[in-house]
Amino acid sequence: MSGLLPKFINIRRGGYIVIIIGIAMQPWILSNTDSKFLSVMGSYAIFLAPLTGILHCEYYVIRRQRLSLQDLYTPNSSSSYWYFHGLSIRTLVSFCIGFFPFLPGYIHNITPSIHVSEGWSQLFYMCYPLGYFGTGAVHYAISYFFPPKELGKVDERDIYGTFAPGEKTPFGILVGVHPEDIEAGGSDSGDGESVPPKLANAEVQDARSA
Question: I need a labelling partner for 135 at 20 to 30 A (CA). Which of 59, 117, 193, 194 fits?
């Protein structure tokens, strides 16, 4: 809760809000019998399958494991992941398309008194594999025709200290070498001695080629 509206909700207020919502939902009704509890827990797959399919498709297929950590923690329009006022329309459309086909079977599973056709019920029983692969395919198709901006962008240097000095980094991310130092004419070698510009540039090239 505090992550959604940090300006207005701190940890304590968020905790109180969650407590109130939790009591209002009356979760004990969902677990008063074994069959109903298992039905409710098993039905979460219609939400998890589309989300998992979108996440895996976005990270492994579309972006190919290339992310900019700096942009992930930039909460304004300059970030590559700001999308439309902080909302990814591609993800929302993909989730809705992958979620709604299982909704009739989900409703019948929770409330058997509501009758639906046998086809909807059978479709619901296969919600996880169908939701995972189906939503992932839909998300890939949407991203193919409407690709996200700055696709494949990564940080030029390790600004968050993710990698240890001397550790081999993916995608040529620099560790301990700042572009500002190179532009200024050199860099610090770490022992108090200044590194000449040519040597500094050579270190950058070696780091990127590694």
Answer: 117
Cα 200 → chain centroid: 36
* CA 156 to chain CA mean position, Å: 21
Q: What is the pLDDT of residues 158-171, one digit of tens each?
A: 887 777 777 777 77
Q: Which of the residues in the chain have pLDDT under 50?
A: 181-208, 210
- Burial class of residue 42 (count of CB atoms within 10 Å of its CB; 0-12, 13-18, 19+): middle
Write the single-letter amino acid at 175. V
The torsion angles phi and psi of 131, rounded to 5 degrees, stand at: -65, -40
Tell me the domain boundaries of the chain.
1-32, 34-145, 155-186
State the maximum Cα–Cα separation within the chain, in Å, rounded to a whole number.
78
Q: Which two tokens stand for residue 33?
A: 């019998």
**DSSP helix/strand/coil, 81:** coil
Residue type, 162: T
